[in-house]
Amino acid sequence: MKLIFKKEELSKILGVIEKALPVRSPVPIVNNIYFHCQEEEVFFSATNLELEIRYTLPYESKHNFKLLLPPKLVEVIRYLPAQDVEISYDLERYRIDIACGPANYHLYGADPAEYPLTEHVTVEHSYTTINQAQLKQALRQVVFASSNEEGRPVFTGLLFSFEQQGITITASDTYRLAISSLTAPSSSDPQQLLIPARSIQELIKVLNDDDQPVTIGFQENQVVFKFEGITFITKVLDERFPDISGIIPTNYRTRVKLPRQTLEETVTRASLLSEGVNKAICLSLEGSNLKVKGSSEIGEMEESFTVQSEGEEFEIYVNSRFLMDMIKSVDCEQLSTEINGKNGPIIFRPVEDVHYLYLVLPIKMD
């Protein structure tokens, strides 16, 4: 009773599903990898009870069995030589024997009977299909704006608004707000779901930068993403995201067009001398020059560059980390920035992309 896999293929599969393995779960059985061998396929699965990732691989076999494997299997396979991996199993002792070139391992697993696997992933409501690169980019542009403070659970999630014309993804930690829209026509009824940012961060790692499709669907209190043999299942948060329709200004007092790369380099230099929780830097417009300043107890820096602008001059303070998060997430040459006075929200949009908006509140300085 022997199974044979390509080492690279097996290592790839385990590298994907390990993203759902818990660091240290109080439910011991969850700290394992679920393996199911069937006549035409095998699949591996892992869960932390909020997120489940399974990887299905076509595989012709005469065997049909289930087994829990220890998480150490991920590292064992990763460091094997680049040769075929032979796996033998003993179901009575929940043991597998691994042979690959000169390396041999004996690993002990557990009985899978009590493992909390989502048995039937039926996707009751398939919403839409979109290519992986588009979805990945939209998620990268938004996820960093969510909160990691568990005391405010509603802000630890990303709001997915599914409409007939597309998807709008929103995140906020109350100090900033990011919104990205995707065109993905669907005949499904409009729906809003709040998905944990932790799950989305892992989804970003698994998605590829290509035009292969991702199918998004719902079942009960879960969202399912299916692509290239991977089924990514995450629970939704039972929280109500606040209405943000009145937060985004409809006009501005100043608009500035900024070269993205120049802004990134300048803010990076200024942030070296910013300090404190807010990592504050100063942005000021004087004529056609944007001046960027950073200061702390050890010194000061100042740098300016020419910009296109309309409206009044200004001086505002912003969190340099908040600014850098946005700059690094967008792929554009120019950013349009709308300023609403010293204390009003600041809006950033890529000039070449009407589907993304980033709002950040300025820091009030004495």
Description:
The chain is α+β, with helices and mostly antiparallel strands and about 375 residues long. It folds into 3 domains: about 1-115, DNA Polymerase III, subunit A, domain 2 (DNA Polymerase III, Chain A, domain 2, Roll); about 125-235, DNA Polymerase III, Chain A, domain 2; about 255-360, DNA Polymerase III, subunit A, domain 2 (DNA Polymerase III, Chain A, domain 2, Roll). Helices cover about 15% and strands about 45% of the residues. The chain has 6 helices and 25 strands. The protein has helices at about 5-15, 75-80, 130-140, 195-205, 260-270, 320-330; strands at about 1-5, 35, 40-45, 50-60, 65-70, 85-90, 95-100, 105-110, 125-130, 155-165, 165-170, 175-185, 190-195, 215-220, 220-225, 230-235, 255-260, 280-285, 290-295, 300-305, 310, 315-320, 335-340, 345-350, 355-360. Strands 13-10-11-12-25-24-23-17-21 form a 9-stranded antiparallel sheet. An 8-stranded antiparallel sheet has the order 5-2-3-4-16-15-14-9. Helix 5 packs antiparallel against helix 6. The protein is elongated. The termini are far apart. The relative contact order is 0.11.
